[in-house]
C-alpha cells in the first residue's frame, strides 16, 4: 500500500490535535478557579507534587511534571518570591537544590482543596470513560518516556 501524504496531512487524521485541544480546554477550566488563588496552572501542578511530598529536589519535581529546568526554574523563583517555597542546597550534595513549602505554601492546600471537585464538575465524561482515558494517556506518556531514554 502506497503512503498517501494527502491523507496523512489531514487534521482529522492527527492524534496530536485532539490531545492538544483537549489539554487546552481542560487548562481553560482550571484557569478561573486557580486565578482566585493567584496561581497559574503550572504552579498548581508544582503544589500538587509538593503537597504530596515536601522537601524534594528540583530534579524530582521536573521529572514528576515532565518539565525541564528552563521551564521549572523561573516558575520556582516566582513561587519563592511570593513566599510559598524555600530553595536550599542539599546538605548531602550542594549541586542539588531542595524545594520546601513554607507555612504559606502549606496553608494554600486548604484553600485549594475544592479545585479538583470544581473542575471535575465541568468535565462531562462518564467515570468509566474517564478512567480508560486516564490509563491510555499514561500509557502514551510512558511509551514516550521510554523512547526518550
What can you tell me about this protein's structure?
This protein is mainly alpha-helical and 149 residues long. It has one domain: Arc Repressor Mutant, subunit A (Orthogonal Bundle). Helix content is 64%, strand content 8%. The longest helix is centred in the last third of the chain and has 22 residues. It starts with a helix and ends with a helix.
Summary keywords:
globular, Arc Repressor Mutant, subunit A, mainly alpha, three-stranded antiparallel β-sheet
Summarize the structure.
With 149 residues, the protein is mainly alpha-helical.
Question: What is the radius of gyration?
Answer: 19 Å
> What is the count of distinct domains?
1
N- to C-terminal distance: 32 Å
Order of helices and strands: HHHEHHEEHHH
Q: What CATH architecture label applies?
A: Orthogonal Bundle
Number of helices: 8
CATH topology annotation? Arc Repressor Mutant, subunit A
Q: Mind telling me the CATH superfamily name?
A: Winged helix-like DNA-binding domain superfamily/Winged helix DNA-binding domain
What is the average of the pLDDT values? 93
Give the spatial strand order of the biggest sheet: 1-3-2
Number of strands: 3
Class by SSE composition: mainly alpha
Q: What is the CATH level 1 assignment?
A: Mainly Alpha
Largest sheet: 3 strands, antiparallel
